[in-house]
């Protein structure tokens, strides 16, 4: 039985705080996620939709952002995206993610897409290079977007064998720098935190309230129904403003990430060797 029909570029969208109905999402997601090709969207189960993209570009775009904010009827619905897996389980998020890596000080004689992809394969599945790398306008560093398994080890450098005209092979180490590695908890099977930050594994991380805390009886509180309603409205407006600010910040940072990603070196050891 085939499990790959129209699923080569399939992505799972997860809504955690409500979502528009599926008929609305058919129109909203392609437009607000800026998808260029044909797309099919269906309901997987409660809170989850399956987005079948038709192009690699749309697939990468959907998985490259940590969060989409789907606007509908004066509200924003956060949607996170993950690579679809044949063994999809709504209780477990996949450990597959997309990250940018940089290969600084790459020699010009191996600064081509095929070689760069071969080097990036030491980390994961290379998907695309950035525009400056493609046009060779920034030869000081090659940048590649790679599909990785967050449960794997991430090498800090890769060994290259460069063949000279005399036939002699000279080895050169190429550093690998990671713009950002998402956190993933092996225990919870969720993105956003690791084992050291897991509340399930470390109950002491919860901030416990002091049982002997003295309550200030002079503190003003809402004592009437009207006051309570006013407070509720103020809280709703505050949440809306925070989400709007977060979306603007995300849009600005998303552009900066593509052009000037902050390089963060992976702390795990590991090497790979390639020869040309």
Can you tell me about this structure?
InterPro entries: At4g02000-like, DUF4283. This is DUF4283 domain-containing protein. Pfam families: DUF4283. It comes from Solanum verrucosum. Helix content is 25%, strand content 28%. The protein is an alpha+beta fold and 276 residues long. Among the domains are: 10-83, Alpha-Beta Plaits; 96-184 and 260-275. Mean pLDDT is 79; it is low at 209-232 and 246-271.
Share in helix: 25-40%
Low-confidence stretches: 209-232, 246-271
Beta strand count: 14
Largest beta sheet, briefly?
5 strands, antiparallel
Mean pLDDT: 79
Query: Based on helices, strands and strand pairing, what is the structural class?
Result: alpha+beta
The total of helices stands at 5
What strand line-up does the widest sheet have? 2-3-1-5-4
Radius of gyration over all CA atoms, rounded: 23 Å
Write the element-wise H/E pattern from the N-terminal end onward: EHEEHEEEHEHEEEEEEHE
Strand content: 25-35%
How far apart the termini lie comes to: 40 Å
Task: Tell the overall outline.
Answer: globular
